[in-house]
Amino acid sequence: MTTFNLLVAPFLEFGFMRRALIGCLALSLSGAPIGVFLVLRRMSLMGDVMSHAILPGAAIGFLLSGFSLFAMTLGGVVAGLAVALAAGFISRTTPLKEDASFASFYLVSLGLGVLIVSLKGSNVDLLHVLFGNVLALDDAAIYLIASIATVTFLAFAFVYRLLVAECFDPGFLRSVGGAGGAVHFLFLVLVVLNLVGGFNALGTLMVVGLIILPAASSRFWSESIGGQIIASALIAVVSSYVGLVVSYHVAVPTSPAIILTAGAIHALSLLVGRHGSFLRQMLRAQHLRG
Amino acid sequence: MASSPAIHCRDLTLSYRRHPAVHHLTGTFAPGSFTAVVGPNGAGKSTLLKGIVGLVRPDGGSIEVTGARRSDIAYLPQQAALDRGFPMRVLDLAAMGLWRRTGPFRRIGAALLREVEAALDAVGLSGFEERMVGSLSGGQFQRALFARLLLQDARLILLDEPFAAIDGRTADALLGLVGRWHREGRTIIAVLHDFNAVRQHIPKTLLIARDPIAWGPTSEVLTEANIARSRGLDEAFDSDAELCERPAA
After folding, report:
1. Interface-testing mutation among B83, B89, B131, with chain A (most A C-beta atoms within 10 A)
2. Chain segment B200-221, per-residue pLDDT in tens
3. ipTM for the complex?
4. Structural domain total, chain B
5. CB contact under 8 A, A176 and B71
């Protein structure tokens, strides 16, 4: 098999492979800043939680109108935001910490979501919602993902300084009258939008992997936020492409192939990354002069 | 500088879950005054500063800042609250102090950049501009926060244990900077632990142990008798405490 056949031909030959690639690339690029800020805010697990939280909303959409992109997206956004806000509210007003409060909500959401899907659909439908079907992206789904990526980029360009300040020193931002709460909320909205956009392709359970794994790897390659976002986007793009190619040739499911590729890159970053990896720590054992 | 800000506390009580951290405090931080707030752990010193900035709401009495808008107040919280490993350059950290002038959107041009460099120079961090915040020592990090304060050019400055965990030389240098702010007519309140430094450098002192013990010129406040009284504070909350019946003033 030639390199061309291995790496390029599947995408020239099959429209569904091209669509899958375009969808995943858009998701990768837009998920990068989201993931980097989730990691910076120590909210990596919150991403996971919110991806479960969108499930019952999407499921209600599915229950009402089958696999309607619009209904499932709307349901997912509403449910995701509702859980994020309710969990935040409970952690602010009761002694329950935010992570515990999020965990309670997502466990209930997961149970509710699975129940609702199985009320109407089959196990195949359930698998579709949980793990996505990246090889069956239609035009509408691709437009949706691309629109979400565009909105994400514009929003980040607009609130970048606010977001960094809110992330590093929320007290400072409040003291100079910056709209910290509004920025935090906008960020949550962007997280939910990206998760909902991604769940059509990779499924609610897998989409977080494409957002968090590259971001967690990126800190081994750059020390600045901008550098981490670029590294994260590159890692996500490479993971998407390699995952698609592997799943095509080896005939394994696509979402796990993409996530596992991202996982392999993460392991590589841990071992040999430029900053703080095991390799760097071993090299540093010999200290500098004075 | 025009009129300096003042802070008026009237029978002020600030609490966490109804347990008072600051209890029935009445008095004024005069315009242009430089006051040390001292007292044992759990005495409500940090809470008082948070109350002034508006991070904790009074649940009794009132607190009023005159002569300063919210954006004229610079507040330096305890260091532990910040993520020291945040991926940010020293230059960016200091430049946050320009917020009042740049806001969230305006560009930081060459002139402002020179101001940031000058501020870093003033705190002895010249040459650290491109270093990452995470590579700084505790004292250097504190200096960088002072550079940010310098750029804020605020007229009311609140410092919460600004010299905790930093060496004497750095503390002296930063205290010198604070003294200069005082001479420029800014109103300054600093939570401190080192009685000697307070006696040497700070004209006014408020000694609190939840309830105010004494407030006035430092030499009159920091007497053996007052300090002994402040140490009588029982740190633990009395979970069966009865409602405070002291009538509002």
Report:
1. B83
2. 889 999 999 888 888 999 988 8
3. 0.80
4. 1
5. yes
